[in-house]
Amino acid sequence: MSSRAPRIEFAVGAFLLLALASLLVLAIASTNGSFGFGGSTYSVTARFTNLGPLRPNAPVKIGGVAIGKVKSIGLDPVKLDSVVTLAIDSRYDDLPADTSAAILTSGLLGESYVGLAPGGDPDPLKEGDEIFLTQSSVDIIQMVGKYMFSGGAGTPGEDAATGAGETPPADDGADDVPDYLK
Fold first, then answer.
1. Which residue has the higher pLDDT, 153 or 114?
2. Where is this region: Disordered (predicted)?
3. Closest residue by Cα to residue 94 from 76, 118, 68, 77
4. What sign for the dihedral angle of Cα 32, 34, 39, 42?
5. Using an 8 Å Cβ cutoff, are 100 and 116 in contact?
6. In the chain, N or C: fewer CB atoms in 10 Å?
7. How large a percentage of the chain has pLDDT more than 70?
8. 65, 159, 176, 74: which is closest to 115 by C-alpha?
9. In this structure, is residue 98 part of a structural domain?
10. Domain that residue 15 falls in
């Protein structure tokens, strides 16, 4: 029995090492492969009036490809705009200065991210630059509420506030024929 004890101890030790290695792989995968000492990035800012559900560490994408992440979100005390700082991978240091930014959502209820659309300016964005062309988040719940309570389901030509409408002109079919055939 004494010859089996080292084998069992070795098997238990190997199992524990395998379990710890699996946890390490899971930790790396859940942090997108970085523990804070990832590759080099440069920061640019963008101002938005409505961020929606955008959060720090949300991806920054061009054409669906992640090129960075949201570094921080703050509020400008003077203009009361949301200021989003983007950390963009240094491999993409040739983005045009007239690049536009929009807060988009993956699917109907998916995660929010910042989508960039490169412009045509020959000068690139540099560290500390600001993206001026921005589009804020669209609030789906607010849009549905406006449609439901503003009379959006009325008939054509009907005034949403009063319910009264103009009588559409009688269709005599004469307008369907082009002038050169009359």
1. 114
2. 155-182
3. 118
4. positive
5. yes
6. N
7. 75
8. 65
9. yes
10. 1-30
